[in-house]
Amino acid sequence: MRSVLPTVAARASEGQRVAAAPDRRTTIGAVDSWLEPARELPVIGRPDVLVVGAGSAGIAAALAAARRGADTWLLERSGFLGGLATVGLINLLLTMDDGGGTVVVAGLCQEFVDRVEGRGAARYPPSPEWDNEDPDAVDRWRRWGLIWGAPPEAVRYSVAFDPEVFIDVAHEALADAGVRLRLHSWFASVGMSGGVVGAVIVESKRGREAICPRMVVDATGDGDVLVSAGAEHEQVAIPPYLWFRVGGVEDAGGAPGGGREWFLTTGKGRVLVPWGPSPDRVDPCDPDDMTQAEVRCRLAAHGAFERLRREVPAFADAWLDDYARMLGITESRRLVGAYVLRKEDGDVRFGDSVAQTGHWTRRHVVFDVPYRCLVSPAVANLLVAGRCISTTRYVHQATKEIPAAMATGEAAGAAAARAVATDVAVQDVDVGALRADLRSRGAFVGGVD
Ligand SMILES: Cc1cc2nc3c(=O)[nH]c(=O)nc-3n(C[C@H](O)[C@H](O)[C@H](O)COP(=O)(O)OP(=O)(O)OC[C@H]3O[C@@H](n4cnc5c(N)ncnc54)[C@H](O)[C@@H]3O)c2cc1C
Questions:
Q1: 25 falls within a domain
Q2: How far is it, in rounded angstroms, from Cα 306 to Cα 198?
Q3: Is 270 part of a structural domain of the chain?
Q4: Ligand 1 center to residue 365 CA distance, Å?
Q5: Does residue 200 belong to any structural domain of this protein?
Q6: What pTM was estimated for this model as a whole?
Q7: Tell me, what DSSP letter sits at residue 159?
Q8: pLDDT (tens digit, 9 = 90+) per residue, 203-227?
Q9: What is the distance in A from the centroid of ligand 1 to the CA of 170?
């Protein structure tokens, strides 16, 4: 007998909607890869300059670009400004001098010192003390974490600061300069058009979006942008640190162990414990490695805190205030740029120098940072700033420091704005004019004209 119910085909042909049978499978079987469908992304902006990463280098880059009139965006994956310098609890600017009493980093870094100090949240040796080798003076500042390196040690121009005040100052400065800030957004990849970054793809809870800037500054610390853009780079595995702060320390200034196991801070009764390194090396760009490191370091750092409480009377009633929100990663990926700065370049003056730095453990050596260390020959609209610029591992020890990161950030931001204003590739920026511009705004660029 024929059914009186219409067949599926018949219903479909009558234009009725037919629900597909629900898929009740609970597994899809073994697959080795997954093909993500291509999709069109909304372009959410076309700034002159996009700075990726809002650590100390990225903040300086964004400020430098915006203050020169460039429409500037600053992208950051976390909800915080400052990166290692703030939420990484690396709250020491080492160092702004050459180890002989001469200042070599100024510009935006000095502006931040002034602004943070203006709120009572920075401590540093007064200038008459710089280069003083007197053991009492050295020991006094060692307690603030400001003396490192081999004897003969001397007091240096280095600065201990409060990270929250640094963040507040950064917010104010960026807002005043008109920088458009985009937090909680990960840089994901770039879309290249030949040797040009055409689009920067960002990922957030809003999904994937594209930004089409004229110039990009990679200030991610890990070189995420330069890697995605195909620039040559190198990468290392390192042992991580996890600094933490302790509150409620009695007479922290006089307690034994100060200056080695912990440092004074601008907060009364609060000290900074520079825990690390962890014995195991990690790949800082591998989330599994980093997850294990977070767990291991936190446990070990907590053990160190408990030991202090047990063994040091000043810590008897102390509490653990906070662990760094970023593992202490000294280095990961670095650009191999148009020039790689080497140990032999110490005290060499370069014609295209755009920043200078001393060395935190060595006195009487100053590195010029040539503009070529901030650019890749392969990408026409990419600059690099901070701890991923083009140097050897030896020189990285100096250029990774916060003052140097701010100085290279300032140079990269100024160069990006100049490239936009003069409509040239980053390789064709007039470096003489860039140097003069940086100097006119208080930066120390070193080099020779
Ligand atoms: C243990 C340790 C001790 C140190 N001691 C000192 C010291 O005493 N004095 C000193 O001056 N320096 C010190 N340094 C070095 C210094 O802290 C860092 O090298 C410097 O802060 C790096 O600044 P940066 O802006 O280049 O990078 P970071 O501070 O790493 O900033 C990078 C920013 O980019 C963001 N980011 C990264 N990837 C993405 C992405 N894909 N999308 C969006 N955002 C992203 C990050 O969240 C971060 O905010 C130390 C470093 C370590 C690890």
A1: no
A2: 52
A3: yes
A4: 23
A5: yes
A6: 0.95
A7: E
A8: 999 999 999 999 999 999 999 999 9
A9: 15
